Amino acid sequence: EGSRIEIRLTQNELIIENPGDQSLNPDEVFERFSVNSKKNGNIGLGLAITKVICDRNNWKIGYNFKEGRHIFSIQFT
Fold it and tell me: Would you say residue 38 has pLDDT above 80?
């Protein structure tokens, strides 16, 4: 509640940002059911499915955590 999700789309890139308390593990964020070590539960399938879609379309997917925000980007190449 009271947080903001930002979505930006250009011809070459999609960026989705949302608030978070801590960084996800960038080495595992796109793996199925990756576990966030500091919280209970797992990330699920959504990001793993997104990674497969990107791989099949030769798109580059990335994750970063900056200033309390998760930043996911897809570059359409």
Answer: no
